[in-house]
Amino acid sequence: MPVIADVDGDGQAELIVNGYTQKGNVEGGYLRVFKAPAGGRWAPARKVWNQYSYTSLNVHDDLTVTQYPSSPALRLPGKNKLLGDGDDVFPFNNIFEQQTMLDEYGNELWLTPDAPHKANDVFTGWTGANGDEPEAEVTIPHGSTGERDYYANYLYSGREAVEAPTSASEDKIWSFEDGLYVRTMKAGSTVRVYSPDGILYRLQTVVAAGEMQIKLPQGIYIVTINNGASQKVMIE
C-alpha cells in the first residue's frame, strides 16, 4: 500500500512505495519515493505514518501515541463557515489517509498570500526577492532564512493619468493623434498595452533603445514599459 508523508521536510507530500524484484532464487527489496515534478507543488502533509491502519488522530509528530484522541466524527463548518448545514465537513473521519493542513473551518489550507486589492487598480503580480518580473505566485525555497521582501504591483485603472518618470533619460509614454509612442533607453524592453479593465491587448519588445511608434485602433489604453513607467493614453 502506498504511504503519503512529507519525508524530506520540504513542506510537500511525497508518495512512498515498496516492493521487490526476483531473479531466479534471488529476491531484492526496494523503497521508492516520488516527488512533485520540477516547478510543481503537491499539497502539504504530515511527516509521520506510524502503522498500517494509520489515522492522523492517534499519533503525534514525535511518534508518541495520543492518550485521549479527538473524535473522528468531529464536525467542522466547511467553506461557508456555518456549522449545522449541508456544507459541514468531517475531515478526520477516515483511515489510511494522510492529513494535509486545515484551517479552523476544516478546509484545506495553502499558505500563500492572497492577491491584494487596491481600489480601481488591477494587481499584476509580486516582485522583490523573486526578481523584477511580476509573478502571480511566489515560492519561498525550503531552508530559507532571513527576510524576503515582496512588493505588490498594480496596473493603473486609468481613472487618473500616471506620469512617467521625470528624468529625460528614463522611459516615457505618450500618444499623438492615431499613434502610441514610447521612449526607452534600454534595448529589449517590454511594452504592454492593456484595456482599461486590465486585459492584455498587445505585448511588444523594443529591439533598440530610443523612440518608437505603435499603431493602435481608436480607444483608451493603459501602457507600461517593463511594468515600471505607466500611462493612460487615448488614441483618436
Features:
236 residues, mainly beta, 3-stranded antiparallel beta sheet
Explain what the structure shows.
By secondary structure, this protein is an all-beta fold. The chain has no helices and 13 strands. The strands form four sheets. The protein has a four-stranded antiparallel beta sheet with strand order 10-9-12-13, with no helix packed on it. Strand 2 (14-23) and strand 3 form a beta hairpin. It is elongated, with a radius of gyration of 27 Å. The chain starts with a strand and ends with a strand.
Secondary-structure map:
Elements: E1 3-5, E2 14-23, E3 26-34, E4 122-128, E5 131-135, E6 150-155, E7 172-176, E8 179-184, E9 190-194, E10 200-205, E11 210-215, E12 219-225, E13 229-235
Antiparallel strand pairs: 1-2, 2-3, 4-5, 4-6, 7-8, 8-11, 9-10, 9-12, 12-13
| Beta-strand content | 25-35%
Poorly predicted ranges = 157-168
Can you give the helix content as a percent range? under 10%
Q: What's the total number of strands?
A: 13
Element-level helix/strand string? EEEEEEEEEEEEE
- Quick one: overall form? elongated
- How do the strands line up in the largest sheet? 10-9-12-13
Oligomeric form of this entry? single chain
Measured distance between first and last alpha carbons = 68 Å
- Biggest sheet layout: 4 strands, antiparallel
- Rg estimate, integer Å: 27 Å
Mean pLDDT figure: 81
Judged by helices, strands and strand pairing, the structural class is mainly beta
Count of alpha and pi helical runs: 0
